[in-house]
Amino acid sequence: MSHNSSATTLSRPVVSSRTSTGVWWGLLGVVAFSFTVPFTRVAVEGLSPLFIGAGRAVVAAILAALALGLTRQRFPQGIQWVRLTVVAGGIVAGFPLMTTFALASTTASHGAVVIALLPAATATVAVIRGREGPRPLFWVLTAIGVVAALVFALVQSGGFGQLHWADLLLLGAVIAAAIGYAEGGLLARELGPWQTISWALVVASPVMLLLTLLSLGSGAPSATPVQWLSFAYLGVVSMFLGFFAWYHGLAIGPMAQVSQIQLVQPVMTIAWASLLLGESMTWTTAVGGLAVILCAGAAVRVRLNPPSNP
Asked: Among 36, 230, 258, 304, which residue has the fewest nearby CB atoms (within 10 Å)?
């Protein structure tokens, strides 16, 4: 597809090529996302997981449609619609729904450590999507990171053979988000950062609206003001505004380098869970989190630092 067929043809690139700028935009997005798991944990105490996972996307889709309409954005073209569907399946439907159902039965700290695999997973998908060839050590360290996360989940669940279904949902959420991040980062170079998440939300809105209505089958939701405020944050910031910064950073890229910023997200999330929810910082959480973060960080750094030519 040529640049002339982009939905937002401009006289200059949509984003700049300065990596340092991309890193700072990525950090802003990560700060916004770091509250997602604790606030989801608060919201599920009074609202159903299906209502939270789907309803937050409906809230964000309304904001997205207004933003696209008021700024008179041109429609995506051709294959861009298919790619938007991939983004929507990953970060509008897959990640929110799976993490919400998982956090209905596990702690925010536990969820944060498993989700720490996301930077390496995003880098992996970016490598595959960009048809690049990293050193074998990259794949070795990525595999070690997966094993570290699984061992942590098994220890927290009580031993081998007792892996909780919530851990499988969290790992599935990581895969979904990695695909959505990588494809969205590429698409943001064509459509623009906020336009990409906005169109993805619009694409997913019919399905998410249907799921929201289904969640209301047992009656209107009833929650405390704090739980509703948590839900509002998930819809407005986690599902919408946070992606403005995150996709802008990924679009500037390189995606693997910007994705390293996500390594601080589990640390922030565990800190917020301790401060806001009173969750204890056990040694298994600390050791498991450190192992996963180190493995993910090493994998991404191998991707970014290939051996020099003699």
From this structure: 304
pLDDT digit string (tens) for 252-282? 866 766 776 777 777 778 778 878 887 776 7
Q: Alpha-carbon distance 124 to 119, whole Å?
A: 9
Residue 4 buriedness (CB in 10 A; 0-12 / 13-18 / 19+): exposed
- CB environment 66-90: b (16+ within 10 A), e (fewer): ebbeeeebeebeeebeebbebbbbb
Among 76, 24, 132, CA closest to 15: 24
Contact call for residues 27 and 237 (beta carbons, < 8 A): no
3-state secondary structure of 189: helix
Q: What are phi and psi of 270, to 5 degrees?
A: -65, -40
Closest CA to 278 of 107, 25, 33, 84: 107
Query: Which one-letter DSSP state was computed for residue 164?
Result: -
